[in-house]
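User: I'm designing a mutation panel for Pimeloyl-ACP methyl ester carboxylesterase and want to avoid disrupting the core. Could you give me a predicted structure to guide residue selection? Please restate the sequence first so the numbering is unambiguous.

Assistant: Good idea. Sequence first, for numbering, then the predicted structure tokens:
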Amino acid sequence: MSATGNDPVITSYAQAPARTVSAGGVTYAYRELGPKGGIPVVFFVHLAATLDNWDPRIVDPIAENRHVITFDQRGVGASTGQVPATLEEAADHAYEFITALGFEQIDVFSFSMGGMIAQDLIVKHPDLVRRLVLTGTGPRGGKDMDKVVGVTYYDILRATLTRSDPKEYLFFNRDATGKAAGKAFVKRLQERDIDRDKDITLKALRTQLKAIQKFGRSAPSDLSTFTQPTLIANGDHDRMVPTVLSEDLHRRIKGSELIIYPNSGHGGIFQFHEQFAPAAAEFLAN
């Protein structure tokens, strides 16, 4: 572990310092960890998520060798402003945040809605992203992408009735393995006990769901123009953003790699973090 000056490098997400940067009249909340220098890996988070929703078992192995940045979109968690009505606008805000930090090139690690925003970002700024990780996501205009909304509301209701976290239903299969993986994942998200983020509001969640629906119902982007090395991953039984959409992305992005984990859902990368985290870290290190 190298150090800058007298400060040891923080490689644990549970201890990553909370920071803010102002741009476009709003304040973006973010956390950073790992050794500074070189191209950072910026994490694009999922629907309804804040800074506290990243699995430390995925973040920490990447932060061992890379400068990692996670951030709250406008109107979410500790970031100010309004949640945008479209994912294209969310991509504009992400660009605003990245340039406010002074970066001209980044690597992207994205999950679910974050992967949709990352695609829109690259369509507009093709040279910004060097390497791309797309997990649990799908392309603009992808088949049944707009069904995310119904599945989400249904699983929030199921979780409320059983007093559990909706992510246990949305991200994991309901067999014994999936249930155990879901509980373990939710527990890992509690490892940070200081300076936690604010939960997303119901209004913000609804706005994001509508934006995903629009993304699903609009004309596809031309992903054949993507030249960056791309790693795509998902579980084989994703009810939220159907697994076929990961395969669709793989067909559309030339030279991309695809990993599908068995007997797992939307959160396949979290269920299989012991296999996936080193694979992602190695892919981003090349």
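For picking mutation sites, this is relevant: The first helix runs from residue 56 to 63. The CA atoms of residues 126 and 226 lie 7 Å apart.
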